[in-house]
Amino acid sequence: MDALDQPIGDLRRAMPGNYEVKDPDTGPPRLVGHFTEWDTWTEIESLVEGHFFEQTPRAALTKTLQENRDRMRCLFQHGEDPQIGKKVIGPIEVLEADDVGPYYEVPLFKSVPDLVIDGLRAGQYGSSYTFRPTKRPTVVQRPSRSAFNPDGLPQRTLTEVRVIEFGPCVFNFYQGATASARSATDEAIVRRLLDDPERFQEIAKRAGISVPQLPYTDSAPAPGTTLYSVQLQAGVMPAEHRRAERLYKRAAEYAFETPWAVTPRILAVIQTILRERLSGLRPSAEEIQERISSGTSTISSDAAPAADGPVAVINVAGTIMPHAASFSNVSQSGTSIEDLQQQFRDAMASEDVKAILFNIDSPGGSAALVPEFGSEIRDARGTKPIIAVANTMAASAAYWIA
Prior knowledge:
Blueprint: E1 11-16, E2 19-22, E3 30-34, E4 42-46, E5 50-55, H1 62-67, E6 73-74, E7 94-97, E8 102-107, H2 114-121, E9 126-133, E10 138-140, E11 155-157, E12 161-169, E13 182-183, H3 185-194, H4 197-206, H5 227-234, H6 239-257, E14 260-262, H7 264-278, H8 285-293, E15 311-321, E16 334-336, H9 337-349, E17 355-366, H10 370-379, E18 386-394, H11 397-401
Parallel strand pairs: 5-11, 6-12, 15-16, 15-17, 17-18
Antiparallel strand pairs: 1-9, 1-13, 2-3, 3-8, 4-5, 7-8, 9-12, 10-11, 14-17
Helix pairs in contact: 6-7
């Protein structure tokens, strides 16, 4: 018995097109199509799965379409896109078997980026799905040679699978390829291994593959070098560096997936720095500081509030963010919304403080906790004089606080 007879784990398949975007008279645009086709022999060439032909009969998906529909999700790029993340792009309103394959209709959320919808309309994406075989497939190891299988590769027929997610994806068109679909399992496994280089070393060693054990360095990689290639070359990355990479990933997810109330230029700079960092580029702290703080703040958020006199001065400088320490390697000119809340509460509670002054020079920032803080300030009116001064910018989230 081999991997063809008993596949393990989640598998992925991708194919070009096989969808369209429809615009109804009312309501949002609808993504409609099939994420696979019945009884179509597809050549699978995968380092993980092997080299064979595969087909999916209608019966293989009957159970999952009937019993697992409520647990399926429609995701863009398997939920791995850095901008959209693991958010669903729309509810699955129709999912049924027709003569072609599993047919779906998904009304797209208004928040799906225009760039993605434009690409879908232009047919620039493919269709993909992730599934898990729940019954042993039927395998013919030495089939007769045929027109679609002239080399007599093994042929596998899936018997029952559980679909986990489906949706549009970036489909890699390989020059000279004739297959209508491909395995996307290798890419998924590589992404997981990049997050665990020690596991990668272990698997490579068992497979008899020599991976160089180069020392990890904080120096900037050569031009054109990506984080992917650095990790592969470095082999095992020290734990402190792995933690730093995970921190950047979480920061990127936050920057791309949550609402912001900030000037467009500053948000674009933050997202650009995170993209560069995740791709392997390592701009210096001075370069980051110059790009993100130029022209945005003339005061320091590090200065303690002047609460030893009758007026407590609370500085709101730079980009406002919750847990600002998570972005400390992206922006040194940020203000923690939690720190602002604590300073305000301390000033309100102090009998020595007779008035509170917000000294603001900020382009705004994340919308998280800002409405709540604004309401807290508003509710405190009448207790003590509360004054806000734009010195010299109070935009978006900062204006909300003011």
